[in-house]
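F.,

This is the one I mentioned.
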């Protein structure tokens, strides 16, 4: 079962979140680059066919696997351009997300929850 964590992100700003990924015995998982990848997607709702508002991966630099240094450390790395183009009609945009760790055909959902993007008024 995935951990539940709600996220609040300021549109047009940098956002960084570090988490420590552990196995069922509580030992940090060695996230060696090339063996694991990660992906996170935010959508307005859980409806089938819903378009992703935010799509972060290890391949596009939105998620970072820290191999070496702190074992098991995985980070969200949102830059201003990731959220600048999201159309927010009110003060906030509410959505849902999940965050997965992938090793070959094995997918582990590590986090899920609500995501709020707070509209930027300064451009």
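My design for it:
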């Amino acid at each position: 079962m995935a951990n539940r964590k709600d996220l609040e992100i300021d549109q047009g700003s940098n956002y960084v979140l570090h988490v420590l990924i552990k196995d069922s015995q509580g030992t940090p998982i060695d996230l060696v680059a090339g063996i694991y990848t990660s992906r996170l997607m935010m959508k307005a709702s859980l409806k089938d066919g819903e378009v992703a508002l935010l799509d972060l991966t290890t391949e596009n630099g939105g998620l970072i696997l820290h191999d070496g240094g702190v074992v098991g450390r995985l980070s969200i790395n949102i830059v201003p351009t990731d959220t600048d183009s999201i159309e927010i009609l009110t003060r906030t945009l509410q959505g849902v997300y999940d965050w997965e760790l992938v090793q070959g055909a094995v997918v582990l959902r590590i986090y899920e929850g609500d995501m709020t993007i707070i509209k930027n008024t300064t451009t």
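The chain has one domain: 3-118.

Talk soon.
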